Amino acid sequence: MKNSRHPNRRELLRTGLVGFTGLTLPGLYRARAEAAATAKKSDTAIILVWLRGGQSHLDTFDMKPLATTDYRGPFNPIDTNVPGIQITELYPRLSQCADRFALLRSVAHDAGGHPAGSLRVLGGDPASTDKPIPTYPDWMSIASYLRHKPTQQFPNYVTINPVDRYDSFQIAGPTYLGPSYEPFKIIGNPDTPDFSVPNIGFKDEKTQRRIEERTELRSKIDLMRRDIDQTGLMRAFDNFESQALRLLSSPEAARAFDLTQEEDKLRDRYGRNSWGQQCLMARRLVEAGVDIVTTEFDGPLCGRVANWDDHAVNHHVFDANAHRAPFYDQAISALIEDLYDRGLDKRVMVVVTGEFGRTPRISNVASSGGGVASAAKGTVQPGRDHWPRANTMLFSGGGIETGQIIGATDARGEDPISRRVTPYDFLMTIFHHLGYDPVQLALKNFAGRRNPIFSKGNPISELT
Question: Across residues 438-444, what is the average pLDDT?
Answer without folding.
Answer: 63
